[in-house]
Amino acid sequence: MLPLFIHIRFLDLLDIILVAFLFYQLYRLVRGTIAINIFVGIFGVYLFWLLVKALNMELLSSILGQFIGVGVIALIIVFQQEIRKFLLILGGRYRTKQWRFFNKYFSKETKKWDDAVLTEIVSACESMSETKTGALMVFVRKSELGSVIETGDTLNADISARLLGSIFFKNSPLHDGAVIIAENKIKAARCILPTTENIYLPAKYGMRHRAAVGMTEKTDALTVVVSEETGEISLSVEGELLSGLKPDELHTRLDLNLN
Question: What is the DSSP string of the chain?
Answer without folding.
Answer: ---SS----HHHHHHHHHHHHHHHHHHHHHTTSTHHHHHHHHHHHHHHHHHHHHTT-HHHHHHHHHHHHTHHHHHHHHTHHHHHHHHHHHHHHHHHHHHHHHHHHT-----SS-HHHHHHHHHHHHHHHHHT--EEEEE--SS--HHHHTTSEEEEEE--HHHHHHHTSTTSTT-SSEEEEETTEEEEEEE--PPP--TTS-TT--HHHHHHHHHHHHSS-EEEEE-TTT--EEEEETTEEE-S--HHHHHHHHHHHH-
